[in-house]
Amino acid sequence: MESEFTFTRFDQACERFPNNTAIVFLGDKFSFKKLRNMVHRFAAGLAQMGVKKGDRVVIYLSNCVQLVVTFLATQKIGAVAVLVSPIYTSHELEYMINDSGATTVVCHDTNFGYVREILPNTGLKNVIVSNLLDLVSWPKRLVATLLDKVPHGKVRKGVETHSFASVLKAPAIPPKVDIDPIADLSYILYTGGTTGFPKGVPGNHWGHTSYVNDITDHVFAGHVKTGGDAYIAVNPLFHIMALGLFMGLGLNLGNTTVLMPVPQVDAILMAIQRYQVRWMLGVPALYRMILENDRQEMYDLGSLKYCYCGGDVLPREVLQRWKDRVGAPIYQVYGSTEAGHVTYSRLDAGDPPPMSIGVPLPSRRTRIVDPDTMEPVPHGEVGELIVTSAHSIKEYLNKPEESELSFVSLEGEKYYRTSDYVREGDDGQIFYVERSADILKHKGYRVSASEVEAVLQDHPVVVGACVVGVPDPKVGERVKAIVVLKDDAKGVGATELIKFCSERLAKYKVPAYIEFRDMLPKSKVGKLLRREIRDEERRRLEKEKKSRSA
Length: 550
What we know:
Elements: H1 4-16, E1 21-25, E2 28-31, H2 32-48, E3 56-60, H3 65-76, E4 80-83, H4 90-100, E5 104-108, H5 112-118, E6 126-130, H6 138-146, E7 161-163, H7 164-167, E8 185-191, E9 199-204, H8 205-219, E10 230-233, H9 240-250, E11 256-259, H10 265-275, E12 279-282, H11 284-291, E13 306-309, H12 316-326, E14 330-336, E15 340-344, E16 356-360, E17 365-369, E18 383-388, H13 400-406, E19 407-410, E20 413-424, E21 430-435, E22 439-442, E23 445-448, H14 449-456, E24 462-472, E25 476-485, H15 494-502, E26 513-516, H16 530-549
Parallel strand pairs: 1-11, 3-4, 3-5, 4-8, 5-6, 6-7, 10-11, 10-12, 12-13, 13-14, 25-26
Antiparallel strand pairs: 1-2, 8-9, 14-15, 15-16, 16-21, 17-18, 18-20, 19-20, 20-21, 22-23, 24-25
Helix pairs in contact: 2-3, 4-5, 8-9, 11-12
């Protein structure tokens, strides 16, 4: 089967709606015809550089047209897209490049310095560099340059370094590649690990397109205007939720996606008004930011009809305030890097009830089980959500121990353990209750407590660390670390440890608070009791809240 497998619906949209706007980026419009031409040229350029089927290509970019072109081009030639956050440090980036075996990276000039720093320690052969404005019209680039509105980074020339524009000069004739949709990888994404290292999550072509097709054919059927709708993409496309919605709602259906490089509230509201956006995906922090913006009443948001929230629990007061302001509810989408998109709210069932995460997609099978026995819990009772699908890959890259912890075999099928606790309602909807103490959610980002603990324990005077989430209505949870120092440690405080973490972790993972203790709570077998400390923090916050209201 040729690489057209991944491209079938995108190509159909390009044939049917060649002159429709596929992407709006910083005010510039890119038609489906133009986008496909760039994808074909970039795919051919990658092939000329020696990138072939199965090779890993790290995409180290923020939301921009270059990210879209690179992702689709890698799929076209059978390469594997390794999508990573553009705010990752060199410490995180080096690990992911080496773990995935990547030989090519596409980055912004502003984060080229991180790539250059780790180059000698990796197997990278090609570094493709782009400025954020490389693909926008020259008048915009000129104005931005004159006003110094877009940052530029220094790029050191080398035999391995290429400009994005130079790769795009190839003829639009990519090589034809045979792809097995089950055996061949489409992407590798990274998520937090329980042993302190991020876990690579491989996804094949069939597993990826299965949930994308689900949302196209089932969730949105009867609601979306094929070839005549507009969606605003604010969430980063390196995240499985944003990438899937972008493909299923935008590119596959001939619709316009307004692609936002950063979540700047006024720019988002202006774009919704200008392009009559009907569809939106956000995290709770984004919806709260919009509602608390002093100028949000200046914008007409009447076009919004289908607003989705994912990544974390949506507070009821945000849900109600949004409905009052916009006149439309916020629907839920739930998923994970390992399982893809799992559940969606029903669009034809009225406003979703509080804490509902919707119903499972047709290609996903879920169970609610006792986390200790893996036996199903009685209907309506709380248990751990586990999920499987027929064609997804059910193991981590290079991590058999992590795979054994996170995947469980039941009746001949392998399920992913989400570590989220839920219950099922009478109408089949799943209601979220709480998550494992090992996982934090900050601004919709998933933070592994173990990963942050491992970095802290790399500091020469730290002998123990416990990381928990402190509830915060604005961002979900803030990261707090409880730290035990060596007896002879001198002069080491919270500032130094936060700086130490900042040099090794993306900003959203860095602890906001550090508390020092003489010891950490552990079980009889020496297991760290994070939940006990998290419960302490909740009780402390409740006590402070009561004292303020007294």
